[in-house]
Amino acid sequence: MKTAMTLLAALALSATAAPAQTGSLLVLSKHDHTLAVIDPKTLKVVSKAPVGDDPHEVIASADGRIAWVSNYGGGWSLHTLAVIDLVNAKALPSIDIAPLRGAHGLAFSQGKPWFSAEGSKAFGSVDPATGKVDFLMGTGQDRTHMLWVAPDGKEFITININSATVSFFQQVLARDHTDWTATLVSVGRGAEGFDLSPDGRELWVANAQDGTVSIIDRATKKVTATLSINGSSANRLKFTPDGTHVLVSLLRSPDLIVLDAKTHAEVKRLPIGHGAAGIQMEPTGARAFVACTPDNYVAVIDLKTLTVVGRIDAGGEPDGMAWAARP
Q1: How does 158-190 read in b/e, with b if 16+ C-beta sit within 10 Å?
Q2: Whole domain around residue 274: which residue ranges?
Q3: How many domains is the chain built from?
Q4: Are the CB atoms for 180 and 171 separated by under 8 Å?
Q5: DSSP symbols for 82-148
Q6: Which residues form the signal peptide (predicted)?
Q7: What is the CATH number of the domain that holds 52?
Q8: Which secondary structure element, helix H or strand E, spans residue 290, and what is its range?
Q9: Banded model confidence at residue 254, pLDDT cuts 50, 70, 90
Q10: CA 126, CA 228: separation in Å to the nearest integer?
């Protein structure tokens, strides 16, 4: 185990991200319990690896060699992160985060994976060298579901579904040691999908039960606008890489909503299936990939024409996705 963890740490830290055009799309299949690696040129599966029960989200190391997958278990019954060697397409020993429960949201920062622990109202990080939790912060909020971590590890954002809040954590100096400030921002009911604008100034949050999107000024941590999107069950929300549009997936609706990031107006409703979950942007800004979970495919969206230009068969009930550099 120690040898495997040492290798894992070396792989996670050995390189920086490769150019975007050499990357691969990672897609989780909830039904098959697998992670599929997709060639973005052919849209075909290159490899698959087992990831354990109830996989929900995935994140890759900066060099594209390792992926971590959250085994959600409804937010309580499971307490592991699956680990995948992307180079050799095989599962490595999983990471047990117990007594924390319900890993879900994932991020990669400072050479290590970060996770939300929904069942424990907390989030933390794992040391790749030991496979042990090396940082833990409580949120005090119900269903801490999604997570963002700053590149320097000095700022965190969590989305707390049942509390209808967003938590901002900021590292500060307190005399001779570091401390943390926490700011709670109330948003809509069922807050879940979120994204930071590419310039880092705004946080947009999709509120599933209200059919709204909350826009938060990151500097003041105040809600500056609440948009009605005329659609419930909003699941994920992502900015396009150029910052011009915002895509919102609806879990129980056939449409993908496209919003103008500047005017906040609806640009288009794009029929893509019978419901959608995860959204992943191609770093080049050419395409978006949307997991149409009930339809068992990933829709490929041309971001210039805002049309569906392809489908990917990555396994049953696709959901969480990530982009991985190709080592």
Answers
A1: bbbbebbbbbbbeeeeeeeeeeeeeeebebbeb
A2: 2-324
A3: 1
A4: yes
A5: EEEETTTTEEEEEEE-TTS--EEEEEEETTEEEEEEGGGTEEEEEETTTTEEEEEEE--STTEEEEE
A6: 1-20
A7: 2.130.10.10
A8: strand 287-292
A9: very high
A10: 38
